[in-house]
Amino acid sequence: MSYNFGTIPIIKTEVASLRINFQEKELKILVTDKFSVIEVCPLCSNKKFNELFTFKAKPQKDNLLSNYISSQTFSGQRCTNCGLIFLSPVLNQEELNNYYQSLKVDNQIDKNLYKPVMDVIIKYKNEGNLLDVGFGPGAVLDLAKDYGFKPYGVEISKEAISHSRDKGFKTYEGEFLDLELPLRHFDVITLLSVIEHIKNPREVIIKCYNLLKKDGVLAITVPNFGLSARILKERWLYLTPYVGHIYCFTPKVISQILKEANFLLTEMKISQFDPELVPSERSNSYLNFVRLLINSLNNRLFYYLRQYLKIGDAIFVIASKPR
After folding, report:
1. E strand map for the chain
2. What is residue 283's predicted lDDT score, i.e. its pLDDT?
3. Is the full-model pTM beyond 0.90?
């Protein structure tokens, strides 16, 4: 049986300032020790990359970091071995943590945006402990409770933690990999638009494996470097310093990460992020045309074509821990 997931939400985030000089296709850091170039692939330890694009950041309306990164140069690269796509240079972890801890919570996000995800999860698990990593405004926690789960959350934003605890949720404050969480305690873990922000995604997946009970379910959404990304390159919305993404994936790459962590791949679909949660100031007529073309393929008539061509901007994955 096939499922059309429609749209999957992405939360808007931003990264801080960079100052990069691009000379002879080589990135060199000019100022501060807050940033670093990715020199070794975090998935396979390969040191050879193909440059996909370079671009200079432009001013953006209502983007607090625009003044800092405007006119600076970034590079999108692909590992020649495993195929992971990433943006370089990146903020060091301490600076990233400081930034995310200070983020304001957007409480206007409709929890029902996540219903397509939850409707798939309950095919495999319909009760028990659900851990949402990077829960932000808490929409997934609210929805999980509605579906009969006992929700837990992990978040680095102090405001998000305070908001969730006011609502009575059990939450953990801090960076996911640093927290001591109960092993083999959770029936479901959700990583929705999360691991593209984290420097070591493989370690995150391995930790999820250890936290899940046997036959537990892991649900993931990540950006897909598919047809629209290949066409738009630096104009693509989901691998830019404005949304805080470090990595972008392909079905092959995310499948390999899960396999190496001993997960069983249960279901994978190509879908779309929710356009309402993409900063409109990033749009132009070319982007709108491509997005309209891609979104038209959400129609059931074009569902299989969209899966075959892998042209959606999001990969949705369900994986399970063996019994």
Report:
1. 7-8, 20-23, 26-29, 35-36, 49-56, 73-79, 85-88, 90-91, 128-133, 149-155, 170-173, 186-192, 212-223, 247-248, 264-273, 314-320
2. 44
3. no
